[in-house]
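Sequence in, structure out. Go.
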Amino acid sequence: MKHTLTFNRYLVLLAVMLTASVGDTLLSHGMSQVGPVSVHHLGLLLIAMKNPWVIAGITLLIGFFASYLTALSWADLTFVLPSTAFGYVVVALLAKFWQHETISLFRWLGILLIVCGVGFVANGPSLTEHPAEVEEA
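Output:
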């Protein structure tokens, strides 16, 4: 049985990528407002949980987890995780234009290499085929 990627499966992979990227960016934004957390001041994590940006980030990361589990139900981990690597581009763009972070040329090149590697993964099957076991009569 050949496993093909349908439109709905592409939507699930898109959800995995976007919820992780945007969720992580929201967490970063919220934690920059909270400030540094250390082992000696773990109570700040409870304060962070009240920050609306952190709450939004956690909510999106719960959505990520749900869509990630869905994708893993019909595809191999070695297909799902790399196929969402375009999220690195999304994170870099959000970091640059929303968080105003400086992204070096070497980081951009690293992101480009990762995304190019996805092309190799995308050409393979989404699920490992296992030969059916032959029952002895």
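Check: The longest helix spans residues 7-34. The chain has six helices and no strands.
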